[in-house]
Please model this.
Amino acid sequence: MQPLLLTLLIAVSLGAYATPRPNIVVILADDLGYGDLGCYGHPTIKTPHLDKMAAEGLRFTQFYSAAEVCTPSRAALMTGRYPVRSGMAHNQFRVLRAVSTGGLPASEVTLAQTLKDAGYTTGIIGKWHLGVWANNQPQHHPLAHGFDFHFGLMHSNDMNPSDKPRPKMANSLVDQDPEWWNAALYRGRELLEPHTDQTQLTKRYAEEAVKFIGANKDKPFFLYMPHTFPHTPLFASARFKGKSARGIYGDVLAELDWSVGEILRTLKEQGMADNTLVVFTSDNGPWLLMGTETGGSAGLLRDGKGSTWEGGMRVPGIFWMPGKIKPTVERNVASTLDLFPTIIRLAGGSSPTDRPMDGVDLSGLLFKGEPIEREVFCYYRGEELYAARLGAWKLHLITQAGYGDKPVTHEKPLLYNLEVDPSENHEISAEHPGVVARISAAVDQHRATVTPVRSQLIDVVAK
Amino acid sequence: MQPLLLTLLIAVSLGAYATPRPNIVVILADDLGYGDLGCYGHPTIKTPHLDKMAAEGLRFTQFYSAAEVCTPSRAALMTGRYPVRSGMAHNQFRVLRAVSTGGLPASEVTLAQTLKDAGYTTGIIGKWHLGVWANNQPQHHPLAHGFDFHFGLMHSNDMNPSDKPRPKMANSLVDQDPEWWNAALYRGRELLEPHTDQTQLTKRYAEEAVKFIGANKDKPFFLYMPHTFPHTPLFASARFKGKSARGIYGDVLAELDWSVGEILRTLKEQGMADNTLVVFTSDNGPWLLMGTETGGSAGLLRDGKGSTWEGGMRVPGIFWMPGKIKPTVERNVASTLDLFPTIIRLAGGSSPTDRPMDGVDLSGLLFKGEPIEREVFCYYRGEELYAARLGAWKLHLITQAGYGDKPVTHEKPLLYNLEVDPSENHEISAEHPGVVARISAAVDQHRATVTPVRSQLIDVVAK
Model:
């Protein structure tokens, strides 16, 4: 087929979905669990804006982050590839640290760069965690990876303990005293505040986002908003602190929810709602190690952050474009890997063709309710493939609790039917040898596409 | 105040809530867990009609059955009193059996009788379980307790094993072969079918309900629909069997959901929706002992049926009267004990004044969003008070898993904050001695109102 004809066909077919070249907003919560929003069944956490977003849009009940912890999950979202392919995973050093010199390799093609190449204005507001620019690594700055605009932190908000004496511990391992945590806030390459007031972060992110949207009314934009919270330590502004029944975790979520509401309100007020795809999701499951007060909930799912049991990787996933995406509770499997091909399809850009891409284009499902063709979905912990899902079935080759536990390799892999048994209670490999064989074959096929690369998570600044 | 003036005042105040003397429909699922509906967060069970009912109405997130198993829970709903008061509880014989001769004492005043006295037509369609009339105990028939109309089973659907050889076991303790379970279906005092086809029950209940509503358009009615399912063994009609992703449990819930939809549709079509309060709830938590395939889910709550941990007694609670009850996610505590005073208030009848009543009138909350004044809510297991809730706090005096476990009496009671910690993970009595003392005092106060009575659950037919 001739390129011009192909382009025309894509344009015609896109027209049926949504206005060509819609704006894109991807909001990523940090350590938010599957069960932590009102619309996912939490009894006391109030998230009216997200609940409304879900009621007006499409809410996935089987949506996955592509890793069980922060850095690899973000690498997957930004590249559309399993993090093992980019070296953004490591079995021991699970995430980039404040002292890391590694980061997303320049050879990786980011969603931001691809959209920028397609004519989008691109902005990131929030936590990057794909390279610590401050360690004299300019190539790791978001501005070096396709973003025109940047405001936020380079990594997690618990990665720079202060020199001050540690305050009395709360009921979690991380105390909630803002004095004790240094977090450096940047605007682009400018260090705004070496010790920013974390209680103001969510509010400031929202204000920056509203400004970014207002400044980009006339051409398509991509806004990536990886929030700092509800990763611990937890901080909310005075307007929200102490106001929720669910304690500080509920306060922080109420503010996060408010900030989402601000963005949706702005888009509606500016008449951009029906031409902006807004996605809300989380980078991994709840950090159960943090305890009841400051850790989240995976609802009925097993385990949390750090684990490849469902609670570690199944997260909220809400897609919103009023008038274009119909209100739906969607039970198909999808993941953050799918954002790359889906968004590039909508934006009219070109996905890389010189490397394996792991996502599936969801646009037919989102805008027309069409079935999606998905092969196996792989659950990695670090560089290791622990489990794989094919249709309703999940096969565990290795299992491990989120934290403080050793991996168990299963000579006879464990099989669960996640549609019947979402809590992974009832192991049924003996009853379904054919399914075990089918998933094992799919895993082999996937493995054949993975070329080992050196992990970026190893290197640190010299002492 | 003079009686006439009082009546007038009540009438005026009622007018603000809802049309005086609305119809009442109470739909009670059997062993349905807190996490089993789409609107309560289940990822694969589809309940579109109940989800719509919740979206149009008021959905409680902290709604309780007043007992952890079937018979006492139904006694509480029907009398507005803790079952220990009526003798409808027992520590060992937890529920009435097929051979029981006991039942709800004639001295108890039922919701049905009170509404009938107030001029309502009253009907029960479904499972009674407050006395086995067939054991030569005519006083235990629903028709002897205030119901004008009756269609259904006298007790649970697993209580009459057949003489046929037991079929191959499924993955639960109860096999799903309809041939193996006798269930006698009655219409009033007539035995319709000694071995009814349980696959048809939900459908027939719905058809009877639609007929009952159609036949009572001209005067107020009370329809009580205690469903047979999803109590095991599970049966669905051909239209639903094998159709859901969640297996037979999902099939059964899809049919139950359809049946609720039929009732709401009928009310809408007949122009009765804005003058009929429909309540949907469950008699207790999920029967976890039944296993993954045939037992339900309590979502993020701990344990299930038979336990006074939250999963045993916190259940879905949806109240619907379009145009009169606003769409709300309601986080106040409420319980099936509250149905009696609430419904009697709306119907204009008189609650008994010669005995302790345990519920709270919810009408102000439902129709006007007014706060409710609740004292302690008690969690009984059998005749024993195991735990109590006051505001956000729950104190466990005794704990016990749903089944197969012994009670543990806590010399130092366990304290949880259910709003921060709905999963009851983090015991905090040491931090809050004042709260422990306050709940203990409230429990003492409650206990002083309980007069021991002989349990109705002891006596059985002579062999």
Notes: Chain A is about 25% helix and 20% strand. Residues 1-16 of chain A have pLDDT under 50 and may be disordered. The longest strand of chain A covers residues 408-417.
